[in-house]
Amino acid sequence: MTERPKSAAPWSRLAKAARKVETGAFGKYFRLKELLASTEPKDRRAFRKLFTTYYRLGAAGLTDPFKRRYFELLFACNPVGQEDPYTPLLLNLCRFKMRQGHHALQASFVSKLVSIHDESRPIYDRHVSDFFGLRVPSVAQPTDVRINGFVSILGQIQGHYEEWAADRRFRDLEAVLFRKQ
Q1: CA angle 25, 27, 31 (to 5 degrees)
Q2: Which of 32, 24, 37, 80 is nearest to 55 (CA)?
Q3: For residue 37, pLDDT beyond 80
Q4: How confident is the model at residue 14, as a pLDDT?
Q5: Alpha-helix residue ranges (DSSP H) falling in 21-81
Q6: What's the pLDDT at 156?
């Protein structure tokens, strides 16, 4: 699929997406941030449970060893200031098999791991992929090509977000979102 032009912000599509955000969704996210800031074991357990349901880790076919390692990395992660925090995380996690027995590049979950620590970093999921028309390279490609493609996609998305944040129309969309919270 071809990339949409960076300079043409699709405001009507952004407004439609903003209207679809569930009422109260930000409250759950802010609770995640609060729990993540704590090192108390009970808060870490609560974080893991809420993060798992909020981002649907339980429905992704992930194994328990993957999830254990994922949360170890998440709690130890400090991506602020790193040029590319994604590649080492992806390489660490791609060695784990899925429940179906194959290895998978967990690009979406790694983007969420990084973004929960550094909100300037975009999340990549099927909705973001569909919105921008950007896809992680095919599983037929070597892992390093897929990872490099994914990191490039995140850079493109971040560029869009930075461009939009500088546009006054984005403030109107923010108002729509925050009225729902």
Answers
A1: 125
A2: 32
A3: yes
A4: 81
A5: 25-36, 41-54, 64-76
A6: 95
**C-alpha of 123 from chain center:** 3
Tokens of 148: 């490099």
Q: 70, 141, 142: which is closest to 111 by C-alpha? A: 70
Q: Which of 15-24, 56-65, 77-86, 153-162 has the lowest mean pLDDT?
A: 15-24
Q: Do 8 and 158 form a contact (C-beta atoms < 8 A)?
A: no
Tokens of 92: 């660490």
Report whether pLDDT(3) > 60.
no
**Torsions phi, psi of 98, nearest 5?**
-80, 170
- Among 116, 26, 32, smallest CA distance to 73 is for 116
**Cα 121 from chain centroid?**
8
Per-residue pLDDT, 1: 43
Contact between 161 and 122 under an 8 Å Cβ cutoff? The reply is yes
* Of 139, 140, 111, nearest in space to 125 by CA: 111
Measured CA to CA in angstroms, residue 21 lies from 26, 97, 151, 162, 174 at distances of 9, 32, 26, 20, 11
**Pairwise CA distance, residues 171 & 143, whole Å:** 39
Q: 22-31: which pairs have CB atoms within 8 A and are 24 or more residues apart?
A: 22/180, 23/180, 23/181, 24/180, 24/181, 25/180, 25/181, 26/177, 26/178, 26/181, 27/181, 28/54, 29/54
